[in-house]
Amino acid sequence: xxxxxxxGGGIGGLAASYYLCKSPQVTKVVVLESSSRFxxxxxxxxxxDGAVFEHGPRGIRPAGAVGRNTLNMVEDLGxxxxxxxxxxxxxxxKNRYLYVxxxxxxxxxxxxxxxxxxxxxxxxxxxxxAMEILVKKSKEDxxxxxxxxxxxxxxxxxxxxxxxxxxxxxxxxxRKLSVRSCFPVLYNAEQHRGxxxxxxxxxxxxxxxxxxxxxxxxxxxxxWAQWSLSRGVESLxxxxxxxxxxSSRVELHRDAxxxxxxxxxxxxxxHLEDGVVSADHIISALPxxxxxxxxxxxxxxxxxxxxxxxxxxxxxxxxxxxxxILPVMGFGHLVPSSEDRGLMGIxxxxxxxxxxxxxxxxxxxxxxxxxxxxxxxxxxxxxxxxEKRLLERATEAVQSHLGVTSAPSWSWVALxxxxxxxxxxxxxxxxxxxxxxxxxxxxxxxxxxxxxxGVSVNDVIFSGRTAVEQLLGTVI
Length: 476
Prior knowledge:
The chain is an alpha/beta fold and 476 residues long. Helices cover 36% and strands 22% of the residues.
């Protein structure tokens, strides 16, 4: 393996490049990013007065093999000293809210929250959980998240809690999203143990083996629920980029839009606006539709499958208010689609990460998330919606949901077009079909990034590692 081209310089492409550099088998890594910056959706604004605002992902979870993998990378990059951990005992971990019927409701937690009837639910959660063990397992190959949870835990939990959760995680509609692809742990628990509860207690099959480094061990010892970085999560792609720049084997190209790729005697010719790059192998971390438009017509079956993967657009509105304005303390609140289709939730950023507030004077930072699967019906075409309208909608929500009467002292509207792929029913078959086509035709191509194996930062980083290890064998 001489030259590997990595298409896309978001966190997926950067992670793949980072792992490629761990292998002596690769002579050259060429990273091609169409925009003017690396990092993709990991995007932080650092104001001159010290305040930090996230326009994409914020807290990253340390749990599981993929969580340990990311922490091992963070440590290797020398970022351990910048970690901002949030423990399970922190108020942001214990208090998460739902906004239902015009009121904030704290999500039940602890034993008392499970055995009592806690609004907005009409019966104790424990009843639903206790009955779950008796529910027969499905024979279906896949199922919507809403159908799966309704069948196993009852319609009320699906309509309120799970609907809201899917909006918060995927900006998506739980009635269309696949449980097998979005929540494989739940799907596998039912398949292997016949019950979610037994699956949680006994485990639901082996996961990837990732030994924890010292930082990951610390996260367990200190019981972290999530973490960020002192200068925002964009520090992670920035650090990977810096480490790649130090390698004589890596070429990093910004503003390098891939027009089309053609098979060649040695692998691929990658045509850019102003030149051609030759590579023996391509690792594509591009969004599925972007890759589909660059592939040659000989890849038609692959092109068709790639075009079937939908994405949604999310409006992310960062707001800063003077003083302490929150009526409750917690991570934030989610809004079920039955309450307000356009407004998905509000994150109380100052609660989990007060270190990102400006150092002088009390302020409250909030992030309002809007649109997602409902963007078109609520706001129309993303190309014509105005920032003014999105800002007004966000500040109205803060006023009505949280009772805040003052105007924000600072705001930022980011329209994240096509930012979250939607894993609809049958997604796992589609991905398997694509990879099967690649194997059968011996295409020197690997698929990675958020379009295939998980949308979280941890999943995307691990997907980059997996692509490299399937190509070159173990690199760590």
